[in-house]
Design brief:
Distance between the termini: 42 Å
CATH topology: Nucleoside Triphosphate Pyrophosphohydrolase
Shape: globular
Number of helices: 2
CATH superfamily: Nucleoside Triphosphate Pyrophosphohydrolase
Helix content: 10-25%
Number of domains: 1
Largest sheet: 9 strands, mixed
Order of helices and strands: EEEEHEEEEHE
Strand content: over 45%
Radius of gyration: 15 Å
Length: 142
C-alpha cells in the first residue's frame, strides 16, 4: 500500500537578536547540503497557528514567547532526503521570554530526535546566500 502524500500545516517564528536570527541546523544527505530553518513545528488539529507556535517553543526551548505577531503565510514545495514535501507555513515574529537564551551561542532543541541545535546566525549570511535558509522565500521577511 502506498502512503498518500499530504500537505503539512506548519508554524515558524522569526526571532531576532540584533543582526542575527534564531535557527536550527539541518542536513540533506541526498543533496549534501547544510541548511537552516526557523524554529517551530506542525500545527495539530484544533490548534491555531499561534497556539502551535507557543507549544513548540515550550517543547523545543522550554520558554514562552512574547510580542507574538502574525507576519505572512508561505507555501513550500520541496525535496528533502529524496522525498517530496509540501507545507503551508504560517510565519510569526516574537521575542523569547527567557532572556538568557539570547546570550547563548548554541541552544539545545529539547525534543530533537536527531540532535539538532539552535543557533544565532547572521541575517546578512542568508541574504548574501552564504548560508541556506528554508522555507524558500523566508529571507525576504527577515
Amino acid at each position: 500500500m502506498m502512503l498518500k502524500e499530504k500537505i503539512r500545516p506548519l508554524t515558524l517564528c522569526i526571532i531576532k537578536n540584533k543582526d542575527r536570527v534564531l535557527v536550527s541546523d539541518g542536513y540533506d544527505s541526498k543533496k549534501g547540503e547544510v541548511f537552516y530553518r526557523l524554529l517551530g513545528g506542525g500545527i495539530e488539529f484544533g490548534e491555531t497557528g499561534e497556539e502551535a507556535l507557543n507549544r513548540e517553543f515550550n517543547e523545543e526551548l522550554d520558554t514562552e514567547l512574547e510580542n507574538v505577531k502574525y507576519l505572512t503565510t508561505l507555501e513550500n514545495i520541496f525535496t528533502y532526503n529524496g522525498k517530496r514535501g509540501h507545507e503551508i507555513v504560517m510565519i510569526f515574529t516574537a521575542d523569547l521570554a527567557k532572556k538568557d537564551l539570547y546570550q547563548k551561542a548554541s541552544l539545545d532543541i529539547l525534543d530533537s530526535k536527531d540532535g539538532h541545535k539552535g543557533s544565532w546566525q547572521k541575517i546578512e549570511d542568508f541574504k548574501k546566500n552564504k548560508l541556506v535558509l528554508y522555507p524558500n522565500g523566508i529571507v525576504n521577511f527577515i
